[in-house]
Amino acid sequence: YKLKWRDLTMKETPQGITFIEFNERISKTRNGENGEIRSTIPKMFETPLHPARCPVQAYKKYASLRPSGYSSPDDPFYLAPRTVPHTEDKENDIWFKKQKVGDKKLSSLMKVMANKANLNKDKKLTNHSGRKRLVQKLRDNNVSTVDIMQITGHKSERSINNYSELSTKR
Predict the structure, then answer these.
(1) Which residues have a Cβ under 8 Å from the Cβ of 61 and sit 6 or more positions away?
(2) Cα 151–chain centre separation
(3) Minimal CA–CA distance to 51: which of 43, 60, 63?
(4) What is the rounded distance in angstroms from the CA atom of residue 60 to the CA atom of residue 166?
(5) Closest by alpha carbon to 82, among 96, 68, 66?
(6) pTM of the full predicted structure?
(7) Pick the residue with more confidence: 38 or 75?
(8) Mean pLDDT throughout 76-92?
């Protein structure tokens, strides 16, 4: 909800691979004291073989549909969708308002997506479900707890264990 446009930056490796980097700001849980800065900066790399699922392509599309002049560093990342068509310039129609999306709307996104995708209605899916699933998949594939902590940003092993469930595979 507090994510700013500057918190995600598009960059390129020396080999020419484009990626989005998360620039973490100081927060109540990560204030820079006691070594609380991530040792690994989170990144999402382009997936040219799967453009429909490419995070870089999604970022570029989102950037192109934002109101012009509303991608300054301190502008909110998540914007409220436009519900009435922008009629002045149909060719350059924008999808979003110059307004931050509400926190209740943002917190309900996973539930809306799950319903539209006809996912299992018996499961309680939340925005946090993706994070939990990631930890479970990494554990199922024998990724070390230390590496999982670097990927997810958890500060303790105990917090990783809260996400763990015994899988059929294990």
Answers:
(1) none
(2) 13
(3) 60
(4) 38
(5) 96
(6) 0.66
(7) 75
(8) 72
Average pLDDT estimate for 120-124: 74
Residue 162, pLDDT score: 74
| Residue 154 and residue 148 in contact, taking contact as beta carbons nearer than 8 Å | yes
DSSP letters along the chain, please? ---BGGGEEEEE-TTS-EEEEE-PPP-SS--SGGG-S-SS--EEE--TT-GGG-HHHHHHHHHHHSPTT--STTSBSSEEEPSS---S-GGG--SEEEEEPPHHHHHTHHHHHHHHTT--TTS---TTHHHHHHHHHHHHTT--HHHHHHHH--S-HHHHHTT----S--
Cα dihedral 162, 110, 42, 25 sign: negative
Q: How far apart (Å, rounded) are the C-alpha atoms in residues 44 and 151?
A: 11
